[in-house]
Structure formats: C-alpha cells, structure tokens
Amino acid sequence: MPTTTETATISPIGRQTPRIDGPFKVSGTAMYTSDFNFPGLLYAVPVEATIANGKLQKLDTSEAEKMPGVRAIFHRGNIGKIYRSVLQPNSNGITDERRPPFEDDVIRYYGQYVALAVADTFEGAKAGADAVRATYTVEKPNVNPDLKPDDESDVVETTRGRRKRLQSERGDPERAFASAPVKLDQTYVTPTETHNPIELQGTIAMWDGSTLTIYEESQGVFNLRSVLAQMFGLPRENVRVITKFVGSGFGSKLWPWTHCALAVAAARQLGKPVKLVVSRKMMFQSVGHRPRTQQRVRLGATAGGRLVSLMHDYVNDCGMLDGYHENCGEATPYHYSVPNLRVKWGLASRSIGSPTAMRGPGAVPGLFATESAINELADQLKIDPVRLRVLNEPKIDEGLGVPFSSRHFLECLEVGAEKFGWSNRNPEIGSMKRDGSILGWGLAGAAWISGRSAAQANVELRDDGSARVACGTQDIGTGTYTILAQLVADKTGVPLNKIEVVLGDTSLPPGPISGGSLVTGSVVPAVFDAADNAIASLLSVATTTLGSPFEKHKADDLGFETGRVFVKADGPVKGVPFSDLLRRTNMRLVTGSGKSEGTFDEKKPKVSMHSFGCHFVEVTWQPAIARLRVNRVVTVIDGGRIINPLAGRNQIEGAVVMGVGMALLEHTIYDPQNGAPINSNLADYLMSVNADAPLMEVHFLDHPDTEVNPLGARGIGEIGLAGVAAAITAATYHATGVRVRELPIRIEDLLTSSVLA
Amino acid sequence: MPTIQEIPTASPIGRDTPRIDGPLKVSGTAHYASDFYFPGLLYGVPVEATIAKGKITKLDTAAAEKLTGVRAILHRQNIGKIFRSTLGEGMNGVCIERRPPFEDDVVRYYGQYVALAVADTFESAKPATDAVVVSYAKEKPNVEDKLTADNEL
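Structure tokens for the assembled complex are given below, as produced in the milestone run.
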C-alpha cells in the first residue's frame, strides 16, 4: 500500500535520471524484434544481386527448392502482388526506396534483392538462398565519386516531394563576392557513411485473415503502418506494428525498407509467420546510408571580417530511382549574418542503393563544409575563429526573416572558450607542443532544427498509486521511456518506479517518429495535456462519487499536488493520496487523453526554432609515426531545457565519438568494377571504438525554449554531431599545416606535413 | 474495372439517396449484436429484483446451480471486480447508470439485477434465474406521480 513517503516530492525534470528501461536491457529481458518467436515461425533470407547495373535474365531455383527444410523460393513470378505506396499528408507514407521489391527485372544497385528463400530454420534459408542461380545481363555501373548535378532543372522530384533547387537566396551574392576584399572558394567532400547500429534490421510478419501484425525495430511505427497498408492493399487499421526496443537506428530504421515487404509477402503466401533479419553486409547495401556530398562554399568578407557574400552549392549522390536530397543547406541561411546569400543543390544519380537520413542528415555534412570555410577564412584574415563568429552573429534568422525563439550561440562560444582554455592558443601552425606531440586546437559551431511533430498520449492514474503513460512513439536507445516517465512524475507526483511506460505500438495514441531530435519536444505538451485531463477526471470523481471524502466540495475547491487530492483551503498535508480516493470510490483508474499539434506544417513560421552549440577540439600529432589522435573535446549545447542531463550528456558524448569517426574513419567505398560497397563489414568499415574516444566535457546552457513546449525542452540526439568534424580538421590544420577538405582525414593526407616535433 | 458510365458525374450530396445498407437489412444479412455467434458461446440471463427499495438479505443459489446445463450463478460475491467509471474529457466515458452491477446489496429500483445465471443454452439459463431464491429487507418505494424538487435550488 502506498504511503506518504513513497510519493515523489521533487520533480525529476532536469535531474540526472537513470534510464527506467536500463535493468531490462542489462538483464537481457528487453525483447528486441528478432528475439520474438511464434509457433510455426519460418525464416527468410534474401538473395542479393551480384551486379549493380543490368537485368536479371534467368533465375534457377530448382536446386534450392529441393533443399531440406526449404518451404519456398520467392521471386517476381510467385511473390504475389506488392503495390506501390505514395507520400501522404502529415508525414505518412515516407519511404526512400519506393519501388516494391521484385517489381521488375532491372538491377539498379549491388545487393538489390532478386529472390527470397524461406525455410524452417535460418540455416536452411541461408543455404537455400545460396543455391539460387541468377543470370544477368551486366552493364557498367556508375559509382563515380566525382559528383555533378544530373540536370539543371529548377525543380526536382525528391523522396519528399517536389523541391526547388534554389533553396535560399537574398541580395546579390555573385556581385558581392566579386567585389569582396577577401575571398574564399573551396570545395568540401563528405563520403558515403553507413549506419551501423549493432541491432541488425529485421521483420517478423504475421497474417490473421486480412489483418497483419509486424514486429520491426522501427523508428516510426505509424509511418511503417501507412506504407505497409498501401503496399498490401489494406486499410490502415488492419495493420499493427510493434517495436518495443531498438538497438539503435541512427536514421537507418526511420523509413521502411524492401526486406520488410518481402517478409510480409512471404508470410502471406505461406500462411505462417516469417522472420527476416538482414545480414551486416546487407546493412551496407539495401537499408540506406548517408550519401556522398560535394559542396562548394564561396565566402566574401571585408578585411575586418564581416561576411558580405555566402554561396553554398552542393551535390549529393542518390540511387537511380529515389531522388534522395541530403539537405546540406539547412543551416546555411540562418547560421551567420550575411546580406548576400545563395544556397543551391543538385542530385547525381549513381548505381547505388537509396541513401537515407543518418544522424543529423543534411546539416551535419553541410556544417562540415560551411564551418570549415569559416575557419579557413579566419586563418586567411588572421582573426581568431571565435572572434570571426562573434563578428557575424545574426540578430534574426535572415533566411526566414523572423526572430529566433531562443538562440545563445555566442554564449556557447564564450563558455566553450573559457572551459577549454582557448585564450592560451598560439595560432601559429605546429607551435604548441606537449610530451613530444604537436597540439592542434580548433573549433566549430553546431546547429540543428527544433520544433514539434503532432503527438497524442494517454495517462492513467491507478488505485495502487501507480500511473501508466502510453504514446505511439519509439525509444531508439535515446531515453524516451525515461523522459515519458519523468513528465508523468512531474505532473502527478507518482514516483518513477511506479510509472509504466508503453510505446512502440500502432494500437496506442499516435506518437512522433524518432527522427530529427523531435520526440522530446513533441511529447511534452501531449503528455502534460493527458495528465491534466486525468487529474481533472480525478477531481470530478472526488466531488461526485459516492464514497469520496470530498463529496460535498466543488471541483474548484480542490487541489492536486504530489499525488494528493486536497481542499485548497486546508493545504496538501490534509489531503488524501489519489490511490485512496480511487479505492474508496471503487475505481481502478482515471484516464486522460492529450494531444498537441506539430509546428512544421505552419506555412509561415513566426519564429525560427533551432538548437545551437560548439565544439572545441584538441588533437595530438606525432609526426615521427604519423599518428593523429583526437585528445580532448569540450562541447557546449544550447538545446533548450534538458529534462534528463544524464541521458542528455550520453547523447552528446555518443555524437562526439561518432564525429571522431566521421572525421577520421568512416567511409563506405564502392568498387568501380562491380558497384559493390566493398568494405561491407565491421572489420573493414572503421568506426570509433572506446579507444578512440577523447576526453569529453559537455556543458548544457539550459535556457528553456518555451516556443517549443511549456518546459522549454528540445531533443538533442543530433546537435552533438554537427560541427565535430570541422573542429577536428581545423585542429588538424593547426597541428600539421595540412588542410583536409575531404573526409575522412587519412594518414596519407598528413604525410605532406612539414611540422616537426 | 470502373467504366465511364459507372463514375458518378454529379455529387450525391443533397440528392434523394436510398440507404446503401438497405439491401443487407431487408435480406436479413445485416448482423445485429445478438445475431453473432462464437464457438463455446454461453448464455446469460439476469435475476431481477422484485422490490424497488430495500436490501438483499439472502441469495439462495443452491437449487439453480444443480440445474442441467447451468455453468454458474454469479452475484456480488463471485462476479469479480467491476470498477466504477467516470466521465473523461471530450465526452468520453458517458454512462447513465454509473453504479457497477452488484456493487452493493442495496436495491434502488424494481428489476435491478441481483444475480446472473449462465448456461449452455438460453433455455437452461432462464429456468435457473427462476430457481434463484432472493430474500429482501423491503422498504416502501417512492413512485409518487406528483413531482417536487428534492431540494430548493
């Protein structure tokens, strides 16, 4: 029975809060998609195309079909109908690879699925897939890393609809550039990067008549539902998607991929549940990646360091059918004050799988280019790079012509410089040394979108003193379970260990996708609204229900604080725990529903909502053995009010470590001969590991942005990655004198360094 | 496949439109709640209070339970927990008789359910309700035709 001492008297908002789902994860009781098993479950393994351009001429399945345990080999001839889907209003129906699997015999990228083996065991299915013989007419693939726009049309059909190539324009940037006293004109390249969450992508599909249940590690269960409903010709309400735990996604699990439709189709054809988990190699081929970008940045400035012109022209590669646009110019129009600006983009089609969103899509590669250019300009002008940024701080978002909801970029720089000890920097190349190593110091700014997606939630208060919150969003390892519990604890006074959080299920009230760092900001008003409604319901029970100690009072006379209902005049101490009230009135629970609208559908936004930040980086360079190491990173984040600083710091540190990988290691390489991503495994695709992690210091400014929600909280899953690579290349230049404009920095790039220890 | 003639050329809004569900209804193929059947289905018949005001003092179910086909006689002691409901936001949770059935032994109107017989068939459930013997502490009901407000507003 709950006693007074069990009631939380202090809100957990803003407090270091261990994840409530942590114990499930470390004890192995958290069920990830591929952990589920069902009676009669069959296993599917896809057959991958071994060419990147051409046609499937012949598919010989006879040998595979005879193998023990093999139930079927599916292909274009027998998979049954899989329909196309389209983009729908309210961000429904998003997918980056729109072509349904097996739709035609054309091969457009290496690893495209051409058949599917289904067997009683995974081993049987794998052997079956290997025994399928595919014959192709082979054409030369185009995986040329030098990117030029496919065409010069003004408007391009992208995966998210029609978009203008001229993204932002003001003033006369060409003329201002031509007459600028100081000019910079450089091209920056970011490579193809592959998301490598440890949990592989996978699907379990089950049919019951005309209803379909899917277990999938999705970053957006409602979007997956709308795509599958279209692809299988079903009403949306006949499709249920369940995602309880996700072993990270980084964007690769945001939108549906073709393996999911294959599992659904196979389950339909066989009348049995089918599980399909892709291999690590397939993770490099057919479930998206961050595209390669090539970005020309032109800056014109006065001798005093005021920007007069900024031109950002960028191209990203994409698949032959998708039109995926990597929005590298997202931050460019508002990040600095500049009267003349143009941002323009193009797409270059290649014989590769569709790219997709990867942590900080667009702004992360974009800011590598623009922040690198700003750093180079500072060196050219011999102005401190912090000072150059201060000189060009905008008063409003000059791209949209509206004020910022909350921007403290200069404070980020000030705090970062102070914590890092920036004033001790000697700008001369190779001049700073420690323990036989050359030190390099550099910095860069960060920015990322903010706002809200539409969200709904239900909150229950129950007669055992517990609460339940339900929202159809996901926790992709970022701490959403805990945030939802904190919000309910704040409103209801129920302690965190008595709050049940339910998410990741399309049978729940619709919640936001786990993308764009938008979940936290989006769920706050919906959960608060739901909790308020549950409390209102509780107070009405208190005044109207037989058995209540407050039967003679009006609802207005009553208050609710720290889990107690009380007469306002008497104060909370004389109140009754809500559990007592419910039991006395023979009620198990009161429920409240809440919802909030999204901010992205506004035609003309009144404010510009973004998070900001900066990274100060120290690298060490050992010329004798050509060893470059990121040694120390100080990060300052202006991410609104931080609801859980423990998970928040974890987000930023994880992003910084990923940024080290972006700067020094990650690079998916396509074989020019056959178009295959040739380093498609965790041994050859290098990523940061613990040994690569620098000393990290994270500071949150914690200024609430109440335009986003009443708490002023924003999500911070992506902002920590923005700018890291540009700060590292700047520090590397400071140590080595070598300017690297194409990521990742390779040892061979640095061999030209003339700096000696 | 739809042909040109099949595509309506004028909106049916505001036009005399026969009910599209009419054919189901007149042909007997529309399924109303009691038309559905499921494997293993049992039938329930309630026992009605024969007083309008008072208290149940005893409920004798022994004879009823022995009848052929009877699965259970349910009442306050064995029906299990039924919670109260309340009105939520947006007109959710509307209910006129808010008291859950069998919540207490007080009888407030004639025909209030005091027990429930469940059997394999409707025909077995019905005699079982008749075999339940209920004793009441009876009070005089108030069904006065002339209406005066309970309290002065």
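The interface with chain A takes residues 81, 83-90, 92, 98-100, 103 of chain B (CB under 8 Å). The helical segments of chain B are 22-26, 62-65, 122-131. Further analysis is deferred to the final report.
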